[in-house]
Give the backbone structure.
Amino acid sequence: MTDGPCLIGVDLGTSGVKVIAVTPEGAVLASATAYYPLHTPRPLWAEQDPIAWWEATAEAIRTVMASGLSPHRVAAVGLTGQMHGLVLLDPGGDVLRPAILWNDQRTGAECAAMTERIGAERLLELTGNPVLPGFTAPKLLWVRAHEPAVFARASALLLPKDWIRYRLTGERICDVSDASGTSLLDVEHRRWSDEVVSALDIPPSWLPSLVESPDVSAHVSEWAAALTGLAAGTPVVGGAGDQAAQAVGSGIVDEGLVSITIGTSGVVFAASNRYRRDPGGRLHAFCHAAPASGT
């Protein structure tokens, strides 16, 4: 394997995690995939174990590093993956329950209650989107209503890829593209919506810090380095939700370009050079992973 810097990408999917090492020019040096199960304990429910995510991720990173890649060649680690999932942590950073996934549909009542409490038009003004069962905020409201003992022990929430960041670095951080799918983000101003968070009576301290996708968010800890083969101190960038990351990889960073995904979910993605929201709430308005592209 030739010398020179490289980058590690981690994609936490719904069926497995993919890890790839590439040169700055995009040449693939090594890749690995590790799988984990999807649990459907009841109709319309979809859950996974965040511990299984982490174990699979560490395994896949070790496999890539074992291909002959020196840890000191890795200039940075980038994260992407499934969006909208709810990972709840206790004060010690331990997972409280299985993650509720993007494709889980149990929260219809919570979506209706949230829309009634804030108002449909006001919610659209604040977050750029109507609240949907797949989004994160109604999942949290469901836990509060149906699992009060779990909710009482909670002190933090994370999105799926950001749980991996937490395991790698010890820091609770989210990028704005992924946060856009929570129904808690002021998408126009790229920050948590104080009004929505207050209206839902969510402690602001539960929310991770926000960064832009290209920003260095944290660094690999000594603990995670020992488990993965990465070097301690390796930068971990903000990363992005899967669709925003895919758009960057496909070159959808300028207005007028559109991509179509037909996969686990179907998505039509277009970049805009400024914030735009559909007044009817028919189209999502999310922050882009390329900050200069806007939404």
